[in-house]
Amino acid sequence: VQLQASGGGLVQAGASLRLSCAVSGRTASNNGMAWFRQAPGKEREFVASINWRGGSTDYADSVKGRFTISRDNAKNTLSLQMNSLKPEDTGVYYCAVALRSTTSRTTDTFRYWGKGTQVTVSS
Fold this sequence. Notes:
The protein is built from no helices and eleven strands. It has strands spanning 2-6, 9-12, 17-24, 33-38, 45-50, 57-59, 67-72, 77-82, 91-98, 110-113, 117-122. The strands form two sheets. Strands 2, 4, 5, 6, 9, 10 and 11 form a seven-stranded mixed sheet that branches. A four-stranded antiparallel sheet has the order 1-3-8-7, with no helix packed on it. A hairpin with a 6-residue loop joins strand 5 and strand 6.
């Protein structure tokens, strides 16, 4: 399974970005997906997750109301719409796939990871 994240960039505070993650290769038929991020010098942290059918989502408190996670199972893609970006949203954003349908917040739940895409928000 390969995951390729894209859509990052350098933006000013208040701007929007949309991240995408393309999933290729064999995947479990019933898998949850998630976005995590890692700022310089900090541990990787949970951002958002979504279950297999997309009917259940979870968000970190810091992004709730500003970010929206979605998926298109027909296209094997995961997206993260990020609005009202803040400098503290800066980091490398990683997409991840679990082997079961879940909205977990823990990294150990997710088996496959992409290489990440850089998001930088200037003040």
